[in-house]
Amino acid sequence: MTLLQPGPRTSSPLRADDRSAASALSLAVALGIALGVVDLLLQTTLPYPWANLANSSAVWAVAAFALARVLAPTAAVGAAAGAVFLVVAVEAYYVAAIAVDLASPSSLVAASSLAWAFFGVVAGVGFGVAGVWSRAGDTWPAAAGLGLASAVLVAEAWLRLDTPGTAVLTGTAGVLVLASTVHRPVLLRRAALCAGALVVPCHLAFGVAGFGG
Predict the structure, then answer these.
(1) Domain boundary assignment for the chain
(2) Would you state the pLDDT for residue 15?
């Protein structure tokens, strides 16, 4: 009688969630590069108020929300992907500016770019989680996620009242976020309530951060 010999040990394949997480983070890097470069291009070529909208900090935050909503399998991955996306976008923006002689290489480590990277981490985590939550049917977490995306746009519009064109565009974008749920009245009501509750905190957060766009 012969004993069965164990075969060679093989590594277990990645789980589907692991592959999805790796894919989300990889795409966050690629799309972050694209956001930074395209933002600079639009900011320097579009007329007012479209140039201001392209360079809006609220629009960047909602872009992180959208990325996580579409790509991230879990809230943790959404937080990581959102932060990676915005930090890479900040650095890509400055690299692109250096490439066309609109900034010096020292701008990559200047206090302003480091501050933007820090706020990118904070916003990326928050809006990344919100993006994943927004997929949760008609639940309150979904409403909170959508409400945050709407509120940050409306809050920036409030902050931009001295530039009416930009304020109108940004505020309209915030309303359109809610309008995307018009076919789901329960979610729409809940998201509108959450957005109303979050506008003032978002406005205050802009003030603490020291920027509006």
Answers:
(1) 20-209
(2) 65
Unique residue bearing structure tokens 């894919």: 23
Q: Which residue has the higher pLDDT, 196 or 210?
A: 196
What span, in angstroms and rounded, lies between the C-alpha atoms of 91 and 88? Answer: 5
Q: Do 77 and 87 form a contact (C-beta atoms < 8 A)?
A: no
CA distance 37 to 211: 21
Which residues are within 8 A (CB) of 44 and not within 5 positions of it... i.e. 6 or more apart? 51, 102
- What does the pLDDT read at residue 103? 87
CA distance 60 to 166: 15
Evaluate whether 93 touches 37 at the Cβ level (below 8 Å): yes
- Band the pLDDT of 17: cuts 50, 70, 90: low
Largest CA distance in the chain: 89
Our CA dihedral for 39, 44, 49, 52, rounded to 10 degrees, sits at 40
> Does residue 137 contact residue 184 with C-beta atoms inside 8 Å?
no
* pLDDT tens-digit map of 163-178: 999 999 999 999 999 9
87 close to 121: Cβ distance less than 8 angstroms: yes
Whether residue 128 contacts residue 78, with contact meaning beta carbons closer than 8 Å, is answered with yes
Return the structure tokens found at 109.
């480590």
Q: What Rg do the C-alpha atoms of the chain give, in angstroms?
A: 20
